[in-house]
Amino acid sequence: MWQQNRIVGTGLFALDVILGADSRRLGSALGGSTGNVLSILGALGWTATPVASFGQDIAGERLCNELQSIGADLRFVDRSSAQRTNVIYQHQLPTSRNGSATHRFSFACPCCGEKHHPVVEFDGSIVSKALEGQAQTDVFYLDRPTRAGYELAKSYHESGALVVFEPSSAGDDPELFEAILHHAHIVKYADERFKALSCDMPSSVLAEIQTLGASGLRFRSAATGRAWRQLSAFAVPQVEDTSGAGDWCTAGLVYALLQRCSRTWHDLRELELEHALAFGQALSSLNCLTRGARGLLKILTPAEILSLAWELCADRANQQGLLGAKQFGKLTQQKAQTLTLEGHDAPQVCCSAKS
């Protein structure tokens, strides 16, 4: 009997608020690395299971509604009146000469300037509830070195799940960071966050992946003899927004790896890893043609997204990784229609306003 793959995840969930170069509010959506990876895979047919705590506010309600819309399992999402739901402001910068839009992130309210640092830790009772209610999963994902993340990674690693750790920083507890590494199969990070990890990678880690922005990525594993191998990025005719690019790459990597017949991860071959990474890069490149961390899902159906990504991978050798005219034409045509209909989100409300 066919069964959906399940991903359990903890870490950064936030409401992403996109602001134009003129400070107009262009839209908002579920974000944060964990939020994006889970919601992408949920949209592609997986059962997404967040383990998190949100505030009892409008932002928290938005996150729950978006997760429900992709069929997420919300049994382990706590809502607390004592907590403020994380909000990230994505400021779009003026388009560069080559047509590539860039952005910057901020946790400071653009109205009053008050800065709210993201909250990713939560009560241990939520961890216990998750491990009792969902003792097994296909994949466990975390993007922050937290005590809750460690407990979940340890338990799910022991139960046979593929554990993916994608840290944005080493945190302030080196021992905790290293402990999580010992329970991770895949460790992925951006070169803008880490030029290199300060600690040795445990031999139990199957793959270490460093993304390099427009230059692609490099990876190493036992299958490569721990020597770095580089994969160039797919070339795209026009970059609208790079937000969420790394999250799409991770989601595609995990999606492709779970297509394997074997779930014995220690026999993962180099070619399998390379193909899965290429699929992740293809998804990432497609999303860069749209605005927002998951703009691609507003333009194409999940089936169309998967088909285009597999087609890109199959044609990579012939096209030197270039997004073909046929695919690009379809995307740009639908993008124009979507952005025209999308308009603008609700007016900006200061974070200090009652909600």
Automatic annotation (TrEMBL):
Assigned keywords, A-Z: ATP-binding, Kinase, Nucleotide-binding, Transferase
Any Pfam family matching the protein: PfkB
Residues annotated as signal peptide: none
GO molecular function list: ATP binding; kinase activity
Domain Carbohydrate kinase PfkB: from-to ranges: 25-295
Entry keyword Ligase: no
InterPro entries: Carboh/pur_kinase_PfkB_CS (IPR002173), PfkB_Carbo_kinase (IPR050306), PfkB_dom (IPR011611), Ribokinase-like (IPR029056)
Cross-referenced PROSITE patterns: PFKB_KINASES_2
SUPFAM superfamilies referenced in this protein's UniProt entry, alphabetically: Ribokinase-like
Family statement: Belongs to the carbohydrate kinase PfkB family.
Protein name in the entry: Carbohydrate kinase
Origin species: Pseudomonas paraeruginosa (strain DSM 24068 / PA7)
